Amino acid sequence: MPEKVNLDTEFITLGQFLKLADVIQTGGMAKWFLSEHDVFINGEQDQRRGRKLRSGDEIRIPGFGEFVITE
Question: In DSSP terms, which residues pair with 6 in a beta bridge?
């Protein structure tokens, strides 16, 4: 069962999401994290920290967990 991450805005960037989901401690770690780890959004690999995530998107980070964006 994926962990739910609630949004109170229309979208969130992948970099902001990593911090919100407690995958990284600070937003500044996003670029490094994405260069070192695979991130899959809706089944497709994506390393862009500016990628916009919206309600319904599924994020899978091997070794860290699976997440789904909810409103």
Answer: 70
